Amino acid sequence: MQGEGPHVGETTLFVRFGECDLRCAWCDSAHTWLPAREFRAEIARGTGRFETRPNPVSLAAVREAADRLELPLHRYVSLTGGEPLLQPEAVGELARAWRGVGPRIFLETHGLAADALAGVVDSLDVVSMDWKLASDVRRADDPARGEVAGFHDAHERFLAVALRAPEVVVKVVVTTSTRDAEVDEVCRRLAVRAPHVPLVLQPVTPALRVRETPGAERLLALVVRASRLHADVRLIPQTHKLYGAL
Fold this sequence. Notes:
By secondary structure, the chain is an alpha/beta fold. It has a single domain, classed as Aldolase class I (TIM Barrel), CATH 3.20.20.70. The protein is 26% helix and 22% strand. The strands form three sheets. Strands 1-5-6-7-9-10-11 form a seven-stranded parallel beta sheet, with helices on one face. The longest helix is centred in the C-terminal third of the chain and has 14 residues, at 180-193.
């Protein structure tokens, strides 16, 4: 079940890719940052029962597992991570294999690998990209402390490619560290480049080093502020934690 963004609640089969080149302070899947020796696959759709298999796994085995979970009956199949676009060949092969089978092909990405996206975007139905804020996100090779370079320029380049897909969603995770100026910059760039694209402000779900969620007053004020700069702003929390999913 999709647990965040404008398609929350719609039936979704998730294929989670390992490895990520970012370090988000609030990441709820930090186990995907580095290669893993094993992975889990649900045994039957909707059961919450999993089996463990050795990793890496062949794409044929991934397709077989998806068939066992009744892939054609899902509204979406989500290629998520980690960061899927660190493995663009696999993303492209799975997207092409599943396009037209039933579910729409949904890419969830940190929104930075523009060149990798260019090679697969024509096989996607939805690109859901994060817009990372330097207040809470570092690159894997950034120093552990101190200010880091922002992500705005790289996200804008990525967005230019993403707009080739039929649907694009931009998401910003909001924490107690989020600065008004950061969100303003996202809104200004989005309003110029893609005024029709929804901007989802997602209150952080406490995880990893983040222990609290911004209060209602702060969140509502941020929506008001963002709405003055961009036409389509939505405040949508994560829901998948309610039923125990990552």
